[in-house]
Amino acid sequence: MKTKVLISSAVFMISAFFATGAQASVDDADAKSLLNENGCLNCHDVTKTKTARSYKKIAAERKGKADAEAAIIKHLTQPSTVKLGEDMIDHPQVEADPAQVKNLAKWILSR
Ligand code: HEC
What we know:
- Strands 1-2 form a two-stranded antiparallel sheet.
- It is 57% helix and 7% strand.
- It has helices spanning 2-24, 28-37, 55-62, 68-77, 98-109, and strands spanning 81-84, 87-90.
- The longest helix has 23 residues, at 2-24.
- Helix 4 (68-77) crosses helix 5 (98-109).
- The protein has one domain (27-109): Cytochrome c-like domain (Cytochrome Bc1 Complex, Chain D, domain 2, Orthogonal Bundle).
- The chain is mainly α.
- It binds heme C.
- Heme C (HEC) is lined by residues 38-40, 42-44, 52-53, 58, 62, 71-72, 75-76, 82, 84, 89, 91-92, 94, 108.
C-alpha cells in the first residue's frame, strides 16, 4: 500500500518535471524565425483565425493528446494536402533541421 503511494507520487513528480522542462526549453526566437522564413504567417496567425486556423486554436485542439507533438512534426515534414477555403492545397513543409522542427512543434503547442 505504502509503496504504491510512493510510486505514484514519484511518477507525478517526474511528469511535472518534464512538463515544466519542455515549456522552459522552447526557443521562441528560433520558432518565430522559421515561421517568417517559411511564409507560415501568410495563412496562420498566432491567435486570430486567418485563412487557416490560428496556432492557438491548433494547440487547443491537440493539447493533452499523447501524439500531439509527433503529429505536428509529421505535418511539418511530410507532404500533405489541406483544405483552404474551397481549394485543396499542398501544405508547405519546414526547411530546417529536426531539432528546430521539434522546437517549432513545441512552440505551436504552447500557444
Ligand atoms: C497556403 C496557406 C498555408 C501556409 C503557407 C501554411 N499553412 Fe499550415 N495549414 C494550412 C491549412 C489550410 C491547414 C489545415 C486547415 C486549418 O488548419 O485551418 C493547415 C494546418 C496546419 C497545422 C495543423 C496540423 C494539424 O494536424 O493539426 C499546422 C501545425 C500548420 N498548418 C503549421 C504551419 C507551418 C509551421 C507553416 C509554415 C511552414 C504553415 N502551416 C504554412 C494552410 C497553410
